[in-house]
Design goal:
5-stranded mixed β-sheet; 10% strand; Heat Shock Protein 90; 2 domains; 370 residues
C-alpha cells in the first residue's frame, strides 16, 4: 500500500509541476517532466522489498535517485528515497545502520565543502549542506527513533516473560514446599490417632474381660472421631486454600500428647523450653512421633523425655526402654524421615538409633531458626 500510494503521489506531483527541484542544474536535459515518472515507478517497486532486503533496496534506490537527479530532480523521488532510507535504518542490520551514519556525515560535509572549493559563497554552501542534512538526516533520525522504541518494547517483553517464568518457578517451589509441609502435617496429625486405634484394638483382641474390651473400644472410637475431624479440617483447607483450621501441636500441650499414649510410662527431665513458634511446633511434633513409635512398637515401655536448652540451640532426647515388643504393625515408614526433614528445614539435625534395651531419638535445632 505504501509503494502504491507513493507512486500515486509522485504522479500527482509531476502533474502539478513539482519537478526540476534543482532548476539551476546545468546537466539536466531539456525533456518532458513525465520522464521523472520512470524512476519514481522503479523506486516504488523497490519499496516492495524494503523489509526483506533493506540495504539492497536502498543501494538500488540510490542509483535510481541519481538518475532522477540527473533529470533535474522530482519531489516524488524524494518521497521514495525517504522511505527506502528510513526502512534501511529500521530493518537493517546494526553494522549497516552504523555505516549509513558515516556515509550521511560524509555527504553532508561534502555538500558544505564542495561549493566553497568551486568558488560559491558561504551562504550557498551552508544552504546546500542544510538541504543534504534534511534530505538524509531526517529519515535516518526517524528510523533510529522507531528502531530504538521497538528494541525497548522487545526488551520490556523479554523482561516480562522472564518475570513470568521466574514467578512460575517460585510458584512451583512454593507448591512443592507446601506439599512437603502438608505431607509432614498429615502424617503427624493422623499417625497418633491411628497408632492409638491399632494399640487399643490389639488390646481388645487380646483381653478376656468385657470391661477392658469396652474401654479399649471407647478409646478406639474417640481416636477415630479425632482422626476424622482432623482429616475433614485438612480437606477443607485443601479445598479453600485458607490457613490451617487446626493449629499444630505446641510444647504446652505435652500433657495431652502423653494422655494419648497410655501404653507407655512417660517421665520428663528438664523444664519445657521457651522457644520461637517454629521450633516449638517442631519439638512438639518430634515428641509426639517418639511417643507414638514407643507405644506402637513397645507397649509398657518407660519413656524418658529430656529437654536441653542453651543460648545457641534447643534439643530434645526421647529414650525408650523396656516394654513388650509388639507384633509388627502397618505404618507409612516415613515418620522419622519426615521429622528429620522438618528439623533440617530449620537448620537442625535429628537422629534415631537403637540403644541397649531400647531406642533413642535425638534432635537439635538452633534458636536462630525461623
Amino acid at each position: 500500500m505504501t509503494a502504491v500510494a507513493t507512486a500515486g503521489a509522485g504522479t500527482a506531483f509531476i502533474a502539478i509541476g513539482l519537478t526540476n527541484l534543482w532548476s539551476d542544474a546545468a546537466w539536466a536535459p531539456d525533456i518532458s517532466p513525465w520522464w521523472h515518472l520512470i524512476p519514481i515507478l522503479v523506486g516504488s517497486a523497490l519499496m516492495l522489498g524494503k523489509r526483506r532486503r533493506p540495504a539492497t533496496m536502498l543501494f538500488a534506490g540510490t542509483v535510481v535517485a541519481g538518475v532522477d537527479i540527473w533529470l533535474g530532480g522530482s519531489l516524488g523521488m524524494v518521497l521514495v528515497y525517504f522511505d527506502l532510507l528510513y526502512s534501511a535504518v529500521l530493518f537493517g542490520r546494526a553494522r549497516v545502520v552504523r555505516a549509513l551514519l558515516v556515509v550521511i556525515a560524509v555527504l553532508v560535509a561534502a555538500a558544505f565543502v564542495a561549493p566553497l572549493l568551486s568558488g560559491s559563497s558561504l551562504q550557498a554552501a551552508m544552504l546546500l549542506a542544510l538541504q543534504a542534512f534534511l534530505l538524509l538526516g531526517t529519515p535516518y533520525w526517524w528510523g533510529m527513533s522507531v528502531r530504538r522504541s521497538r528494541e525497548l518494547a522487545a526488551l520490556s517483553d523479554a523482561r516480562a516473560r522472564d518475570a513470568e517464568r521466574f514467578a512460575s518457578i517460585v510458584k512451583a517451589d512454593t507448591v512443592r514446599e507446601e506439599r512437603g509441609r502438608m505431607a509432614r502435617d498429615l502424617h503427624d496429625v493422623i499417625a497418633g490417632n491411628l497408632s492409638a486405634i491399632a494399640i487399643n484394638a490389639e488390646a481388645a483382641l487380646s483381653s478376656k474381660t468385657q470391661t477392658h474390651d469396652r474401654a479399649a473400644l471407647r478409646a478406639i472410637r474417640e481416636a477415630s472421631i479425632d482422626g476424622l475431624d482432623e482429616m475433614r479440617s485438612m480437606i477443607l483447607v485443601l479445598r479453600s486454600g485458607t490457613d490451617p483450621l487446626i493449629a499444630p501441636p505446641r510444647l504446652a500441650e505435652l500433657p495431652d500428647l502423653v494422655a494419648r499414649s497410655p501404653a507407655v510410662n512417660v517421665t520428663f527431665v528438664g523444664d519445657t523450653p521457651h522457644v520461637p513458634t517454629a521450633i516449638d511446633q517442631a519439638l512438639a511434633r518430634i515428641v509426639g512421633e517418639g511417643l507414638s513409635n514407643a507405644a506402637r512398637h513397645a507397649p509398657g515401655a518407660d519413656v524418658e523425655i529430656r529437654f536441653r536448652a542453651t543460648e545457641a540451640e534447643t534439643g530434645v532426647s526421647i529414650l525408650s526402654r523396656g516394654g513388650t515388643p509388639a507384633a509388627p504393625t502397618i505404618g507409612t515408614g516415613h515418620g522419622i524421615g519426615l521429622l528429620r526433614e522438618r528439623a533440617e528445614l530449620l537448620g537442625g539435625t535429628l537422629s534415631a538409633a537403637p540403644v541397649e534395651g531400647g531406642w533413642r531419638l535425638d534432635a537439635q535445632i538452633p534458636r536462630s531458626a525461623q
